Amino acid sequence: MKAKVVKENCIGCGACQAIAPNIFELGDDGLSKTIVDEVPKADEEDCKDAIESCPTGAIVEE
């Protein structure tokens, strides 16, 4: 699975980073970004939780 942050929708709340720190981090611009190209199998559930928890729907599964 792959995840993508739609920057236009991100508000930089950090929920995704708190839920899935192996996949997301806040960049210098204060917005979330993915730090992996492909989500490791062991982190897929955390990634899905982060997608569902994003208050603006800024994270999408590709």
Word description of this protein:
The chain is of the alpha+beta class. The chain has one domain (3-61): Alpha-Beta Plaits. It is 24% helix and 19% strand. β2 (24-26) and β3 (32-34) form a beta hairpin. The longest helix has 10 residues, at 44-53. The termini are close together. The model has no long low-confidence stretch (mean pLDDT 98).
Structural topology:
Elements: E1 3-5, H1 15-19, E2 24-26, E3 32-34, H2 44-53, E4 59-61
Antiparallel strand pairs: 1-4, 2-3
Attribute tags:
62 residues, alpha+beta, Alpha-Beta Plaits, two-stranded antiparallel ribbon, 2 helices, 24% helix, globular
State the gist of this model.
With 62 residues, this protein is of the alpha+beta class. The chain has a single domain (3-61), classed as 2-Layer Sandwich (Alpha-Beta Plaits), CATH 3.30.70. The chain has two helices and four strands.
Largest beta sheet: strand ordering? 1-4
The secondary-structure class comes to alpha+beta
Overall number of structural domains = 1
According to DSSP, the number of beta strands is 4
Low-confidence parts, pLDDT < 50 over ≥5 residues? none
- The best one-word shape is globular
Q: How far from one another are the termini?
A: 7 Å
Mean pLDDT rating: 98
Helix content: 10-25%
Number of helices: 2
Q: Which H/E pattern describes the elements?
A: EHEEHE
Main beta sheet strand tally, sense and closure: 2 strands, antiparallel
- Rg over CA atoms, rounded to whole Å, is 10 Å
